[in-house]
Amino acid sequence: MVYVSQQRPENRIEDVEFPVFVDPAIIRAARQIYRTYYEVHPELTQPPLGVAIDRYTHRGKLIFSGRPVLLPQECFVPFNQIESELY
Fold first, then answer.
1. Domain annotation covers residue 42
2. What residue ranges in 1-87 does DSSP mark as E strands?
3. What is the pLDDT of residue 53?
4. Which of 19, 32, 69, 79 is the most buried (most CB within 10 A)?
5. Does residue 62 form part of some domain?
6. Is the pLDDT assigned to residue 87 strictly greater than 60?
7. Buried-state track 43-60, b at ≥16 Cβ within 10 A, e below 16
8. What is the pLDDT of residues 17-51, one digit of tens each?
9. Domain-located, residue 11
10. Whole-prediction pTM
């Protein structure tokens, strides 16, 4: 037997944008990850969606497509937060 959710499309949580409050140290680390990647790959033309970063070690990866699947200790820093202080 298969159960299918009958939620209305306007009630789906995937469509809702929540404000993101990220620790400034994590934003600085995400910015450094982006800068390092850009220095190594100057041919990069497509901006990333953001950086998935570990809150404790500040290690992370640039995300270029799709919704990131995060581990419990990770957070996602959108590119617009990284970019806001780059220029």
1. yes
2. 50-54, 60-63, 74-78
3. 94
4. 79
5. yes
6. no
7. eeeeebbbbbbbbeeeeb
8. 545 567 899 999 999 999 999 999 988 788 899 99
9. no
10. 0.70
Amino acid in position 3: Y
The residue type at 12: R
pLDDT for position 47: 86
Q: How many CB atoms lie within 10 A of CB 7?
A: 9
pLDDT recorded at residue 19: 54
**Exposed, middle or buried: residue 32 (CB in 10 Å: 0-12, 13-18, 19+)?**
middle
**Rounded-to-integer distance, Cα 73 and Cα 68, Å:** 13
Neighbours of 63 (CB within 10 A): 19
> Given the DSSP bridges, would you call strands 74-78 and 50-54 parallel, antiparallel or unpaired?
antiparallel
Provide the residue count of the chain.
87
Range of the domain at 80: 29-87
Return the sign of the alpha-carbon dihedral for residues 2, 72, 66, 78: positive
What span, in angstroms and rounded, lies between the C-alpha atoms of 19 and 37? 26
Residue 10 lies in a domain: no
